[in-house]
Design a protein that fits this description.
Layout (H helix, E strand, L loop, with lengths): L12 E8 L6 E8 L12 E4 L12 E11 L7 E10 L11 H11 L16 E2 L7 E2 L26 H14 L2
Parallel strand pairs: 1-5
Antiparallel strand pairs: 1-2, 3-4, 4-5, 6-7
Amino acid sequence: MNLDLLPLEENITFVEYIWIDGSGQTLRSKTRTYLKAIKSIKDLDWWTYDGSSCLQAITGDSEIWLKPVCMVKDPFRQNCNAFLALCETYIYDQVTPARYNFRFLVNKVMEEAKDQDPWFGIEQEFFFTQKNGGYHPRPYGWPKEGFPEPQGQYYCGVGASNALGRDIMDSAYRAMVYSGL
C-alpha cells in the first residue's frame, strides 16, 4: 500500500524542523504536525528537542530551542501540505545561541554590513560510499582493490564511466530547485 496516496484534510500541515547538532557536522530533524494551513514562516512556532541526545546540552538542562529561519516546500512529501524549516538553535533562555549555531553569528555580521552589499557563496559537495563486504566502505564507483585513475577525467566529466551517481545528483538537484533552495 502506498501511504502517500492516503487523503489528508487540507488544514493539516507537516513541517520538518532541521538543525545542525552539537558535532557541527550532522543534521538532525523531527516533524511537527500543525492542524492549520501554514502560509509563511511567521506561522511556525519555536519548538524544543533534547540537546543532551544531540551533543548540545547536559542531561539535567537539556532543552534546546529551535527557531525556524527559512521555510521551503518539502520535496519528499509532495502529496500533502508539507515544508522543510531550517532552524537556528538556542539554549533554554531562547536568546543565547546553542553550540554550533553559527548562522546567528553570520546573520549578525551580515546585518551590520548590509549597507556594504556583502556577498558570500556556498558550494555543496556530496560524497557517496558503497559497502564492499568489509567494515570500511569505499567511495562509490571505485574499484574493489586499488584506486581509480587521477581525477582529471572525472572533474566536470560526462559519460557513464566518469559521471557516477549522476541520477542521484540530478534527483537531489531537482528536489532543491522544487523546494526553492
